[in-house]
Design a protein that fits this description.
The chain is mostly beta strands. Helices cover about 0% and strands about 50% of the residues.
């Protein structure tokens, strides 16, 4: 059954965990999450303890990545976030942004953790 993932982002965005299983890679889990971002809302700068493989299902999301060019992702666009890379997703509208993300993460760590970024 789908559940809200207990991670840092759950306080800001609607996140529904679709599946969570051990990986064939020792110490790693595979977690699939549907994230909904209201217009004008942002995730806040955060990291994941492993890869995030994502796909934009609806809306337009500005993905800011520390040290990289900002990506403007639209419905149908994929993205890949390396482990531990600080990033911040902002829904620029016009409707709710929806992302399907699959994480391959350290099973002992929280799925997402907020970080402070120096401007």
């Amino acid at each position: 059954m789908a559940a809200e993932p207990a991670d840092a982002l759950a306080s800001r965005l609607k996140r529904t965990e679709l599946q969570h299983k051990p990986s064939s890679i020792p110490g790693r889990d595979i977690v699939q999450v549907l994230t909904e971002i209201p217009v004008g809302a942002e995730s806040g700068w955060h990291t994941h303890p492993g890869e995030e493989v994502g796909y934009i299902l609806a809306g337009t999301v500005e993905m800011r990545i520390q040290g990289e060019a900002t990506l403007l992702l639209r419905q149908g666009d994929p993205f890949l976030m390396p482990p531990g890379t600080p990033h911040n997703a902002l829904d620029v509208g016009p409707g709710t942004g929806m992302m399907l993300s699959t994480y391959i993460v350290d099973a002992a760590e929280p799925l997402a953790s907020f970080v402070t970024i120096e401007s």
